[in-house]
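Dear all,

This email documents one entry for the complex benchmark we are building for the journal club exercise. For each entry we list the sequence lines for every component of the assembly. Then comes the predicted three-dimensional structure of the complex as a token string, followed by one or two observations. Please use this as the template for your own entries, and keep the labels exactly as they appear.
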Amino acid sequence: MCPHTSLKQQFLKKWIMGLQRCSFSKKNMSILERKKTIKLSADIAMASARNGTTRWSRALISNASKDGSDNRLVQQILGPDSNTPAVATTTNKARTRRASVCKKIVKRSHQIRRRRRKCVAAAPVKAVTSSISKHLVRKRTQVLKTLIPGGEFMDEICLIEETLDYITSLRVQVDVMRSVASACFSQS
Amino acid sequence: MELNAGTGGNGSHKTASERDEVAALESLQFTDEIRRLMSAPGGDNASSFTALLELPAPQAVQLIQSPDSAKLIAAPAPAPAPAPAPNVDDFRGSFQFPFNCGLIDRAARFSVFAGDGNINGNNKSNSPEPTSYNSSASLQKPVKSEPAETESSQPLVSDPTVENRSVKRKDREKVKGSSKKSKTSAKESSDDAEKLPYVHVRARRGQATDSHSLAERARREKINARMKLLQDLVPGCSKISGTALVLDEIINHVQSLQRQVEFLSMRLAAVNPRIDFNLDSVFTAESGSLMDSNFSGMVIPMMWPEVQLNGNRQQYPQQLHLDAFQQPVSGREEVCNSYITPENSLLSYDSSGNSASLHSNQLKMEL
């Protein structure tokens, strides 16, 4: 994918630097630990390639730096980029505040819509089908919110934008990892 | 080019929108229109103009300015984002004249968009503007680039310009209202246009025109535009109609991608007991391979990693033997040796040409 080549190279560079810094010198790391470290470093490399422009990247980094065990790793990987944790913490607080505000607004808008629906007389068939479809869509968006890191705090518009970005970066990640893995395997 | 692809893909929407232009009023944003008309190559041919009909301003501007970034999703958005903004600021003062000329040319050429014949006859200066205004707006705006920064810049810019225009809009809408059948809706929508300085949404016939529903409709259209983008991105989604099914596909796609990442990281963890990479060699090797690798749909290749894993299980003990053999001998350099060889094999594996062979020579010299 020609437009993604620079992104791939950036991701690869950051990933390898992160892996190096992760001090794989412990010889008795279990395979699961190794896998976790690899995945974590890949995710953080992908997120830092966005430089805090997208919400999912910030949420990913802040989630990773929340746990005590991974925090050390994250600090090592991010290393000299000390500004990103600061950004993450501010967005955390802002996010919780925004979440509570958003809930109030959502509740109020639901009440208004309910009131308005009582006034507007809709054909019964149409109402039933539209409510069913809305219910389905709402369920799907809930699932999507759990998938995208930091998605629970986004409204629908932002969610779809973040999904777009997230899908492209996931693809890049998978491509790079696959080529690295194939390189390592083709040797044997 | 993306424009032609846009016209091809949105052919059905185009005809529908043309029909709608005559009968209904559409949503638009002033500065988007202005920017598009400013920066569009002035009415070259029918295809480019009608292509621009389908695209909102920022995308059209970006496509015109940077034709390389046809898929603007991964491309860094800040570069094109400041570029459209100065256009509007420059033109804010002398707004009328370029606007008129461009629109009159287009209206003259595409007289079908002028609506009724009497409009064309009556007000040549006034009426072609709103009619081609309408024609140049689109019902569904496919937002093809990272809209975050451009969208945020638009409301800030649109506010002062729009308030200047709102007065003139009222006049034009009254002219339109006399020709269109729904006078009252036009008047009411003009009142609502004052209340909403950012987004101007015209009410369609038979629809509620209070500010809540208008805002809702604008929001709906934004969401639909972005859903369209997602549909284009996710393979196999463009044929599906209906938001719930499309969302289903998107969810499946994201889940599959995440599972692939997990799987590949497990695979990498199994291969390398130690991951000490020689930076330079890996960069050159990987950049060479990445240039060649093409991303041809995630669905089909999903099967082969699992197959490969089964095949490689037999190879794991061999790997471990190799490493166990090397470890008593080795310090760090030996381990690096074993990982330079994968890059050698990679270079031989993918026939990427000159750069690859050069790097293989370099690696051999390093060894």
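Observations: The radius of gyration of chain B is 28 Å. Chain B has a mean pLDDT of 53.
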